[in-house]
Design a protein that fits this description.
Elements lengths: L6 H17 L2 H10 L6 H12 L18 H14 L6 H13 L2 H12 L5 E4 L15 E5 L2 E8 L10 E7 L10 E7 L5 E7 L5 E13 L3 E2 L5 H16 L3 H16 L1 E2 L2 E2 L4 H29 L5 H26 L18 H11 L6 H12 L6
Parallel strand pairs: 1-4
Antiparallel strand pairs: 2-3, 3-7, 4-5, 5-8, 6-7, 9-10
Helix pairs in contact: 1-4, 4-8, 4-9, 5-6, 5-7, 8-9, 8-10, 9-10, 10-11, 10-12
The structure holds flavin-adenine dinucleotide.
Length: 390
């Protein structure tokens, strides 16, 4: 593999960097921190609108659907730059749901949903998990039955993270109760304002909100079942593969690592500059090497994609490595900063932007978001090394 970027890739990265320099400032960072995932503030909306106006919501979409048709390496560069800058990331509606609809939807469905996604007039929550169906998604029980020209949906979804803000839900439902469990699921779009839809908040450790979603005789038009009946399990896997592309980026953790290094340069402990402490130097050097390795693994996955490979094992490696490295950065950061590492950004004396405690709380989520690391290790075993599945 040639790790050097081509002139056009370098020009693209410069374009992204100058966009960021023009549109990202401290006020946007503060607003994003304060909001958590409780909706987007005016600055985040303005930033995402500016991205959309440039056509960057569809940067990875094929040109025939109004996208820019950028390569996987160019997407990787974009994600890396946006995350490193701490700017709001493109919604999963544009990066996971839309590319799936493009591949599986009928022409009519593409015409109906893609332009609305591209203009930002609709936004999806992702409704895969249920109380008894997480990793084993094929066990899901929410069911949809056809009644005339409408589906009637009943059941409960769990961890439906954006449900309290989204206009629609991208829902996995059982439509073929007599088929083998992997073949009885379909993907369906459910408007959040349909009668019978209700949302209950669940607050989790990093201070984020997710939700339980209840569906009680919810009626949706027949045409809202996307793609083929009974193929939903495979469509959900496809959408999750798109989702994993951004989870495998080290940009966010790299930004916090840089703040940690700046804090270490300023700090003294017991009258001695912390930067002279061999233990601190060794830890930081080791993390820097690992961050560079994580970037190379991410870039390699993108390069394999551009070559036409399906790098399932390599993308699982990237996901595991990035999520566990993020935890190591947070652990080390909290250890080096000591009690100060527990201060929040609003505290005037907080070092490393007061985000080390937040990184420590959010990092475990990366280890199961988009598929748990245990399962990713299994994928590496059987797809990467040809080991038996069981
Ligand atoms: C904050 C938060 C936000 C989320 N947001 C969403 C969302 O928006 N939409 C959505 O659909 N879901 C969402 N999820 C759900 C998330 O994807 C699931 O939690 C995840 O898939 C794991 O499922 P589970 O919690 O049922 O755990 P389980 O599947 O019960 O797994 C428990 C443990 O057992 C291990 N395990 C299970 N099966 C195997 C196996 N075959 N081999 C080896 N190990 C195994 C797992 O790795 C894990 O460590 C969210 C979860 C949280 C906590």
């Amino acid at each position: 593999m040639d790790y050097d970027l081509s002139p056009s890739e370098r020009a693209w990265r410069e374009e992204v960097r100058s966009f960021i320099a023009e549109h990202v400032d401290e006020a946007l960072g503060r607003e994003t921190r304060e909001k958590g995932n409780e909706g987007r503030g005016p600055r985040a909306r303005k930033f995402l609108d500016a991205l959309r106006d440039r056509g960057w919501w569809g940067l990875a979409w094929p040109k025939e659907y109004g996208g820019l048709g950028k390569s996987a390496v160019e997407q990787w560069l974009f994600i890396d730059e946006i995350e490193t800058a701490g700017a709001p990331m493109l919604p999963l509606t544009a990066t996971s749901v839309a590319p799936t609809i493009m591949r599986i939807g009928s022409e009519e469905q593409k015409r109906e949903w893609l332009p609305r996604i591209q203009t930002g007039s609709i936004d999806f929550a992702l409704g895969y998990s249920e109380p008894e169906a997480g990793t084993d998604l094929a066990s899901l029980r929410t069911r949809a039955e056809l009644d005339g020209d409408e589906w009637v949906v009943n059941g409960q979804k769990m961890w439906n993270t954006m449900a309290h803000m989204a206009t629609h839900n991208w829902l996995a439902v059982r439509t073929e109760p007599d088929a083998p469990k992997h073949k009885g699921i379909s993907m369906m779009i459910v408007p959040m304002d349909a009668p019978g839809v209700s949302v209950q908040p669940i607050w989790v450790w990093p201070g984020l909100r997710t939700n339980a979603l209840f569906l009680d005789n919810v009626r949706v038009p027949r045409s809202y079942l996307i793609g083929e009946r009974g193929m939903g399990f495979y469509y959900a896997a496809m959408a999750l593969n798109f989702e994993r592309l951004s989870i495998g980026s080290i940009g966010m953790a790299r930004r916090h690592f840089r703040s940690l290094v700046s804090a270490v340069k300023q700090l003294s402990r017991d009258g001695r500059p912390l930067r002279e402490d061999p233990w601190v130097r060794e830890r930081l050097a080791r993390l820097q090497v690992e961050i560079d390795a994580a970037r190379m693994i991410g870039l390699q996955v993108a390069w394999l994609l551009d070559k036409g490979d399906v790098p399932a094992a390599a993308s699982s490696m990237a996901k595991i490595y990035v999520s566990e490295l993020t935890q190591r950065i947070a652990d080390t950061g909290c250890e080096i900063l000591g009690l100060n590492g527990q201060l929040h950004a609003e505290e005037p004396t907080a070092l490393a932007d007061g985000r080390m405690q937040w990184l420590y709380r959010i990092a475990p989520m990366l280890a199961f978001g988009g598929g748990t690391n245990e399962v990713q290790r299994d994928i590496i075993g059987f797809l990467g090394y040809g080991l038996p599945r069981k």
